[in-house]
Amino acid sequence: MRTLPLVVLMTIIFPTWTSRAEEQQAGTEAGQAVRAREAAAPADDEIEKLRRAASLAVEEAARQEQQLPRLDTGTVFSSGNRSLQALNPELSVVGDAGGRLQMNDFDTASLGDDSRFYFRVLGLHFQANLDPFSFFKSAIEFHVGAVELGEAYATWTNLLPGLNLTLGKFRQQFGVVQRWHAHGLDQFDFPLAVTTLLGGEGLNQVGISLTWTAPALWADDQKLWLQVTNGMNEHLFSGQAFGVPVGLLRWTQYYELSDSTYLELGLNGMLGTNNRRNITDDNGERVDEPWRTTTLAGVDLTISWSPLEAERYRHVTLRAEGYWVGKETAGGYLSASGGFAYLDLGLSEALAVGVRGDLTQPFTVDNDGDLDWQALAYLTWRQSPWVRTRLQLAHLDRAGEPAQDVVILQVVFAAGPHKHDRY
How far apart are CA 357 and CA 187, in angstroms? Predict the structure, then answer.
C-alpha cells in the first residue's frame, strides 16, 4: 500500500521536472541564437557603411563634373576623315646624275671634247591601286631644258582567268631590257643594238596590251603578249599618232632548272607601216606616201642563279638578246641585225660587277660589211636601297667614226616607296 502513493507522487513530479528542463534547454538555445545575431551585427553594419560611402563618392564626383566648365572648340571629328590620305597615289622621286670622261682615238688632247657633268633625268613616279581590280602607274621625266611623259597606263587584272589588260602609254615588251627605264638598267646605258635598231627612245607608244598567262604545258610558266599601238616611233614607223596601228606579239617560256636557277626564253615579232599619209607638209600640200612596211623579230635568253638562303647577297645572271629589222624605205630596203650579251655577278648585298658586249649593223640601207661594236665593264655599289653608285668603262667603235673610250660615274638616288623600279 505504501508503494502506490509513491508511484502516484513520481507520476506527478517527473513530467513537471522534464518540462522545466526542456524549457531551460530551449531558452539556452534561443540565447545562443540571439548572441550569434548580436555578434554578426557589427560586420553587417560595416558593409552597410561601405555601401553608403561609395554611393556618396559617386554623387560627389557627379556634382563636381557638372560644375566644371566645358571648352567648345567647334570641331567635329568624324570617323575615317584622317585616313583620306590613303586615297593619294604613292609618289617616288628618282634622280640620275654623274659625270663622264671621254677620249677619242686614244688621243689625250680630245679629253675635253665631250667630258662633262650630266643630269640625265629627274623622274616623278606615281602609282596607285584604283580599286581591287585595277592599278595605275605613270612616270614624268624632267630633263635639263625639257619635260616629257615617260609612261602613263592603267592595268586591269584578271579580266578572264590569267588575262590582264593595259591601256595608255608604255614601253613595249620587245625583249627584256627594252622594257626597262634607264635608271633601272644593270649598266649605265641601253645596249647598242637597242638604240641603233629600235631608236634612241626605244619602243614607247600609246595603245593597249593584253597579257595572258597560258597553261604550263611543257614549261613551268608561259606568257603571251599582244600589243596594238600607234606607230609613234618615227625611227621604225610613220611617227604619226594616228594611222595604221602597229602589232607586237611576244611569247615567253619559263623553266625552273633547280631551286636556285631558272631559264627564260622569249620570242618577239612586230609588224607596222612607215609611210606618212593624210598629212600636209610645210608647203601646204597633201602627203600620201606609198604603203611601206616595217618588220621586226627578236629572241632573248636569260639564265639566272641565286642561292635560296642568300639570294640578296649572291647571284649570277647571263642575259642575251638578238634583233632583226626589215624596213621598206623610199631609198630601198633596209635590213639590219644586232644583239648583245652580258654577265652580271652579285658579290654581296652591296657589290656587283659585270661585263657586256654589243654588236650591231648600222641602221642604213647599204650596211654590208659594216659593224658597230662596244665592250664595257662596270662595278655597282649599292650604298643602301635608296642610293646606288656605278663606275663603268666602255670602248665604242662605230663604222666610219673615231673610236671612243668613256669612263662614267653614275649616281642614282630614289626617295619614295618604289626605289629603283625598272618600270
Answer: 11
Query: pLDDT over 70 for what percent of the chain?
Result: 84
**How far apart (Å, rounded) are the C-alpha atoms in residues 164 and 132?**
13
Q: Torsion angle, CA of 139/270/202/135, rounded to 10 degrees?
A: 10
Q: What is the DSSP letter of 82?
A: G
pLDDT attached to residue 246: 95
Q: What is the pLDDT of residues 260-305, one digit of tens each?
A: 999 999 999 999 999 887 777 777 778 788 899 999 999 999 999 9
- Are 184 and 170 in contact by the 8 Å Cβ rule? The answer is no
Q: Residue 189 falls within a domain, yes or no?
A: yes
Per-residue pLDDT, 3: 46
Integer angstrom CA distances of residue 396 from 358, 360, 367, 373, 375: 9, 12, 18, 6, 7
What pLDDT was estimated at residue 119? 95
Q: Residue 12 domain-assigned?
A: no
Instruction: Supply φ then ψ for residue 29, to 5 degrees.
Output: -65, -40
Grid coordinates belonging to 423: 618600270
Domain of 145, CATH number, reads: 2.40.160.10
Task: Return the SS3 of 85.
Answer: helix
Q: Does residue 44 fall inside a structural domain?
A: no
pLDDT for 54: 80
DSSP for 165-188?
A: EEEEEEE--SSSGGGS-GGGSSSS
83 found inside a domain: no
Helix or strand (DSSP H, E) at 408: strand 404-415
Q: Which of 385, 390, 386, 321 is nearest to 352 (CA)?
A: 390
Q: Containing domain of residue 265, as a range?
A: 92-415
CA distance 113 to 145: 21
How many domains are there within the chain?
A: 1
Residue 81 carries which DSSP code?
Answer: G
Q: Model confidence at 100, in pLDDT bands (50, 70, 90)? A: very high
CB 153 within 8 A of CB 125: no
pLDDT in tens, 243-255: 789 999 999 999 9
CB 186 within 8 A of CB 354: yes
